Amino acid sequence: MPSPPNPSFEILTSRNFASWLISQHASITFTTYQVGKVFMIGINPDGKIHLTERTFPRCMGLGGDTQTIWMSSRFQVWRFENSLQPGQVYNHYDRVYLPQMAYTTGDLDIHDIIMGKDKKPVFVNTLFSCLATVSETHSFRPLWKPPFISQLAPEDRCHLNGMAGIDGEPAYVTAVSKSDVSDGWRDQRKNGGILMDVRNNEIVCEGLSMPHSPRWYKDRLWLLEAGSGFFGYVDQKTGKFEQVCFCPGFLRGLTFIGDYALIGLSSIRENRTFSGLDLDENLKSRNVNARCGIQIVNLNTGAAEHWIRMEGMVQELYDVKILHEVRRPLLIGTQKDEINKMVSIET
Fold first, then answer.
1. What are the backbone dihedrals phi and psi of residue 55, each rounded to the nearest 5 degrees, phi first?
2. Which pairing describes strands 320-324 and 304-312: parallel, antiparallel, or unpaired?
3. How is the chain split among helix, strand and coil, in percent rounded to 5?
4. Contacts of 121 (CB under 8 A, 6+ apart)
5. Using CA atoms in the order 176, 129, 55, 81, what is the torsion angle rounded to 10 degrees?
6. 251 and 263 in contact (C-beta within 8 Å)?
7. Which DSSP string do the residues of 249-316 spell out, in sequence order?
8. CATH homologous superfamily for 9-335?
9. Phi and psi dihedrals of 297, rounded to 5?
């Protein structure tokens, strides 16, 4: 598989991953804020894996569809638009995503992001403990905050991080705690996490360990319990988190295609945020180290049938997104000359 030119980075896949990706008629994009990269994985004309990467500072959340991609970075929210017409191909790429707009938000520590019904982004403003959207005149426009947050303040009180959208509307969010003081969530990492319904301000599930990436798929509410390493779903009747399978890493980033879930895994940093969690013991009991990559799980069996692993400079992922009906995507960055030549005419 081709890799970026940096010799300290290597990407490996399971033996049948390329065949699986071809069978799904899709490609994959994912972000790592650790080194500020957005990756795209597709298929070459010869059936082999094709990998591209572009650099954006602290890129994290991904939202949108196969025509429009929204992505959060350190102090901006970017909109990338596919510049090709249906059936058009550019150098064997069937999608070419150009950076058409960037809203300057300041460093809000933006996590998950979805594309709203008005085609504008709705994002988790983690620093201010709220959901927000972009503003034409200000850093952001708040849309909702948890009822236990007494005021909007740049204090990351509960570490609001994940959001599930339904039909372009925010439906559920995850937070590491219900704290209402600056940085208070760090004291509740092991079992203070919650899943909340945005539409009625009700807590659906609690007692979670650093929950991330809630997603609504096939009439079921899925999420990642990063503090334990388990992928699962929340039973809507009992409010209980039902474990589907263990994944060897700190879990963030979840997307679906067919009967499969794609789950982002990160290695564990040696600091207070990642230490002292059940994940440590769960890894130890299985005699495995935390990995960085993507695990592809069959929803019917819970088996990890395929995987992507990254080694070297990339040790943490944030978000993962499937691009349906896209075989070989390309995202244009802002640091190389190629963007100067990408000119198209609206007709």
1. -105, 125
2. unpaired
3. 5, 45, 45
4. 63, 70, 77, 79, 113, 114, 115, 133, 134
5. 120
6. yes
7. SEEEEEEEETTEEEEEEEPPPSSTTTTTSHHHHHHHHTT-----EEEEEETTT--EEEEEEEEES---
8. TolB, C-terminal domain (2.120.10.30)
9. -110, 135
As a whole number, mean pLDDT of residues 234-253 equals 96
Q: Distance between CA 262 and CA 30 in Å, rounded? A: 11
Which tens digits make up the pLDDT trace of 153-192? Answer: 999 999 999 999 999 999 999 999 999 999 999 999 999 9
Please report, in angstroms and rounded to a whole number, the separation of the first and last CA atoms in the chain.
38
Choice between 271 and 220, residue whose per-residue pLDDT is larger: 220
Length of the chain: 347
Give bridge partners of residue 69 from the DSSP assignment: 64, 80
- Selection from 5, 106, 40, 104 nearest residue 332 by Cα: 40
pTM over 0.85: yes
CA distances from 5 to 1, 82, 200, 291 (A): 12, 26, 49, 22
Q: For 2-50, how does the pLDDT look when each residue is reduced to its tens digit (9 = 90+)?
A: 444 445 889 999 999 999 999 999 999 999 999 999 999 999 999 999 9
Output the DSSP codes for 149-160.
--S--SS-SS-E
With H, G, I as helix, E, B as strand and everything else as coil, classify residue 123. Answer: strand
